[in-house]
Amino acid sequence: MLRRATLLASSDFAIDKDGGQPCRNLQTDFRCGIHNRLRQSGFRGCTVYDCFGAGQQVSQVTYNGRDWRQAPETAKEMFEVFPVMRQLYELLRYLTEALTLQPARSIHGDLSLALNETKRLTDLGPKALMELDAAVHRAKVNVLLLQTSELVRDEARRTHKGPPVRHKKAGRGADLIGANLKGADFRYANLRGAYLIAADLRNADLRTADLIGADFRDADLRGANLTGSLFLTQAQLNAAKGNADTKLPPTLAHPSHWFAV
After folding, report:
1. What are the pLDDT digits (tens) for 172-215?
2. Using alpha carbons only, how large is the chain's radius of gyration in Å?
3. Residue 43 contacts by C-beta under 8 Å, 6 or more apart in sequence?
């Protein structure tokens, strides 16, 4: 894989690599030569990265199957286009999920329009993509995603049986780095963009919590319940620790490293 920024050796990436240069593990068929042993080889950061399908769109559609090895003159432009496409594909992922949530049915029409517009943008040519203000489009979509979250969580709260759930530590962008949250009840909470790095979330209840953009690096999710959580991605789980008792939405899988001895 190529990255534009220079990468320095760290606990997540075992080697120094200049921006715009291929990783030494990239094979001629563009597959990773150590894909099955990335963590053991010191490339943990690669296991938690997800392009949401943007890479395939750029190579197969935007550039009609050409690649930067066959057409080196396209390399710089392609590297400019890719991060824009990745933002669009991430939005497609969230919009698609939002349209499956029945409590948000009152805005499904607006969500469908946003989905179709985002799909249209992914089909733009390279020049148009580089000129696209993806941040503006993302902000518009985010309004709908936040409305979706509020509708789903409000309905869950209304149908909740038992004492009301109070979230003393929850909140958008909350700094919960290394926090002891074992057994915490975060049902219906807004944890958008929360910093949960190395937090102890063992046996925590995160059902129907909004987890879009939450940072789960090294968070301990053993025994946690994340069923029904909103906008959780596989990459977030790949960054965390868990076990067979961690309950996940049906569209996501337990990462293999959770079971490594």
Report:
1. 889 999 999 999 999 999 999 999 999 999 999 999 999 999 99
2. 20
3. 12, 13, 14, 25, 34
**Distance, CA of 167 to CA of 245 (rounded, Å):** 24
Q: Between the CA atoms of 257, 186, 175 and 84, what dihedral angle is there, to the nearest 10 degrees? A: 60
* Residue 17 token pair: 């690599």
Q: Which tokens is 212 given? A: 């879009």
Q: What is the spatial distance between Cα 196 and Cα 38, in angstroms, rounded to a whole number?
A: 23
DSSP characters for 130-160? Answer: HH--HHHHHHHHHHHHHHHHHHHHHHHHHT-
The Cα–Cα gap between 66 and 68 comes to 7
Q: What is the DSSP letter of 58?
A: I
| Distance separating alpha carbons of residues 35 and 46, to the nearest angstrom | 9
Dist CA 145 CA 114 (whole Å): 10
In this prediction, residue 172 carries a pLDDT of 81
Say whether 46 sits in a helix, a strand or coil. helix
